[in-house]
Amino acid sequence: MTLADSPALTQDRPPAGGRPQRQPLAGRTALVSASETARMRTLGRELAAAGRRIANMAAGELDTALAAPVRRAAIAAIEAGHNRYTDTSGLPGLRSAIAGLVAEKTGLAWTPAGISVTAGAKQALFNAAMTLIDPGCEVLIPCPYWTTFPTQIRIAGGTPVALDTTATGYLPTPAMIRAAITPATRMIVLNTPNNPTGRVYDAGLLDQIASIAQDHDLWILFDECYGALVPAPAVHVNLLRLRPDLRDRVVLVDSFSKSCAMTGWRIGYLAAPEPVIKAASAFQSHTASNPNVIAQHAVLAALTTGRAELDAFQADIRALLAGNRALALDILAGLDRVTVRPGEGGFYLYLDLGRLIGRQFADGSPVTDADAVAEHLLSEAGVASVPGSAFGDPRGLRLSYAIDGDDLATGLRALVATLNRVA
Which of 81, 227, 244, 339 falls between 20 and 30 A from 101, CA-CA? Predict the structure, then answer.
């Protein structure tokens, strides 16, 4: 859909010569709906606040304390009176520290001019879309996808093109990518470890995709927000470390939300060719002005004086998640007609509900799609999840195992019992 085709722009037009009627909302609002992940997370919290025990597996965040060096530095920043604007793209020291971090990940030299600090990864992605996508451009996105990807592409005037990976183990194939490319294709989005499936793209697949992008002169948006949360034996591969020859067409997006357990603090970044950073910063100057100054100082300290402590924190988190994942898979093995797709990284498990669709819940209501399953699990089992419709897949269900172990076990046992009663 283009803005010109939007219902808000075409409905209730006055007859010729009639008085124009003011439209209540801008046409672009028809392109955007509230995040389903946020809705389910909120529903779970509301029920818990009302006194019901809820295993909230809808939230995409760690159920753990904030990384200690981040907490200490934030308190110190408040005491020091750091309450003024910073540079639009972030504190120079933080941009320098992130440049060093990106250099470690990519094996390439980086300067602060190639870094823009943002209000979380969402703003980094939005800035990239507004910078790189013109109306009419097509963007390839493997599906299931994080719900924000296609929405932001539409806001920028582009057309998201979903690549259905449900039959290929939730990984895109070179053949499907080549088949989807048209003269209008501008960019491909790669998200590894993937949200919602947890799949990790290996070096061989990334190399093939990189070559396709090079052959067709495509940008690659490489979202690695869960890259620090990949336990052995899986390995997260940074695209530019693998293919440094693509530096002029790759935009890296990362965040400290997951790796530092600070989702609410909203600090992410773009690492890209300098012209991209300059243009993205111009957009940011008219939206957020600059990222949260206290959070910036906190991350700066974590990356410099607190780096060893941060590395140990992340190692502990990976061990905790590995234990939760093993527990979850053991319990979910009891499901009768549901296929569990264990991801290699991040903290999500993805369920294929295809064999339940068309059947009936124990109360006689129909299993129409993943949305019906998610609603039923919340009301009957006390489990908050996110239906695959949020990710372009009406048969899938995302579960986060980054929650308290006791709540995880209780919730998953209730989920198995509830879904096994589907007749």
Answer: 81
Cβ atoms of 354 and 394 within 8 Å: the answer is no
Contact in structure between 162 and 145 (CB atoms under 8 Å): yes
Place of tokens 């579960």: 399
The closest alpha carbon to 125, from 269, 314, 278, belongs to: 269
CA distance 156 to 168: 30
> Is this structure's pTM higher than 0.70?
yes
Q: 137 φ, ψ to 5°? A: -70, 145
Beta strand 396-400 pairing with 386-387: antiparallel
What the block records as the tokens of 70 is 């981040």
Judge whether residue 143 has pLDDT over 90: yes
How far is residue 15's CA from residue 13's CA, in Å, rounded to a whole number?
A: 7
Residue environment code for 141-156, b if the CB has 16+ CB neighbours within 10 A, otherwise e: bbbbbbbbbbbbbbbb
Contact between residue 68 and residue 313 where contact means Cβ atoms under 8 Å apart: yes
**Residue range 58-70: mean pLDDT, rounded:** 88
Give CA–CA dist 255/379, Å, rounded: 33
Hey, is 189 helix, strand or coil? Answer: strand
Q: How far apart are CA 339 and CA 333, in angstroms?
A: 9
Q: Are 58 and 386 in contact (CB under 8 A)?
A: yes
Contact criterion met (CB below 8 Å) for 240 and 90? no
pLDDT digits (tens, 9 = 90+) for 396-407: 999 999 999 999
Closest by CA position to 346, among listed 146, 116, 160? 146
What is the residue type of 249?
Answer: R
Any idea which residue has 């994942």 for tokens?
325
The stretches of 234-306 forming alpha helices (DSSP H) are: 239-242, 274-285, 293-303
Tokens of 335: 């499901």
Q: What burial letters (b/e) apply to 198-228, b meaning 16+ CB within 10 Å? A: bbbbeeebbebbbebbeeeebbbbbbbbbbb
Residue 312 belongs to what H/E stretch?
A: helix 307-332
Reading the block at residue 375, the tokens are 């609603």
Tokens of 302: 């974590």
Contact 50, 177 (CB under 8 A): no
CA 360 – CA 364 distance, rounded (Å): 5
Would you state the pLDDT for residue 52?
Answer: 74
- Name, in order, each residue with C-beta under 8 angstroms of 20's C-beta and a sequence gap of 6 or more: 14
**Nearest alpha carbon to residue 392 among 102, 46, 149, 79:** 149
HSE-CB at 174 with a 13 A cutoff on CA atoms is: 13
